[in-house]
Design goal:
The complex is a heterodimer of chains A (57) and B (255).
Chain A (H helix, E strand, L loop, with lengths): L6 H5 L4 H32 L10
Chain B lengths: L6 E2 L2 E2 L6 H33 L13 H28 L2 H33 L7 H22 L3 H15 L2 H11 L19 H33 L4 H8 L4
Antiparallel strand pairs in B: 1-2
Helix pairs in contact in B: 1-7, 2-3, 2-5, 2-7, 3-4, 3-5, 3-7, 4-5, 4-6
Classes of the chains: A mainly alpha (57), B mainly alpha (255).
Chain lengths: 57, 255
Amino acid sequence: MNWAIGSDFLAMGGYALYVWGSYGVATGLIVVEIILLKSRRSAALAQSGARSMGGRS
Amino acid sequence: MSQPTLVIGNVNWFRYASPQAFYPLAGAMIPWFAWVAAACALAGLYVGFFVAPTDFQQGESYRIIFIHVAAAWMSMFIYLVMAFWSGVGLVFNTRLSHMMASALAPTGALFTFIALWTGSLWGRPTWGTWWAWDARLTSELILLFLYFGYLALAAAIEEPRRADRACAVLALVGAVNVPIIYFSVKWWNTLHQGASVSLTSAPTMAATMFTGMILMAIAAWTYSIAAALHRVRSIILERERGADWVTQLDRGGRL
């Protein structure tokens, strides 16, 4: 292991902006895609009148 | 219209070309791919941040590689798969192929953006610039515009079958750009470095760096498969509204 988790790790040898800017934005966008996928499915289910969505029985 | 058949080993493989047969199959596969993606991403990040050594030239900034390379590979590969399904859809006139192609596009655009964004954040400390009109960077930017064009075209055409064919042609024509991206670092004198990993020679990097990169690449692959299968299920429901099989699955609570 190269470092204990803490300020050294967060500082990334002075490249914190670049490293965390990369991983932060990538993670954020993937989370957004997962939210969009789930909301599209809910909309498609509701439109199909799915029972689980409280549509017609 | 009769269904096309492809019988190998007593199984008609075109059975799964029908949305009705594919819908439950896709649903069953999603959790497996999603779990593999999560596990490989965690392992890849662990190796990338805690096991792989600091680079003697670039310091810690090189750790961007683990997300950058995985995203860049995925951005190109998804486009090729999209073009493949578009071609199959045009030749065999199978609706599911077109649905699969359009389900891949948003995820492809996502990885293309991540590749460009992380590349920019890596370029600043290593090259001293956020962006250069270099062959590799420019062709990757064109890839992003191809994905956006595909999505805009799909959204602009009301009738699904017409949209499918128009999008398929765009996907196939745009596929020319993928080998240009891949070989750009060989064909032109680019700021971007050449490939560190190829099928024909040993990787020119530390073994632990390579392991981290491969784990992240597997995570990107399996995530993309899970996301595309999830999206194609929504597309099937949107298009098959009112079909008997949808109503039947719904009655059984299996939609």
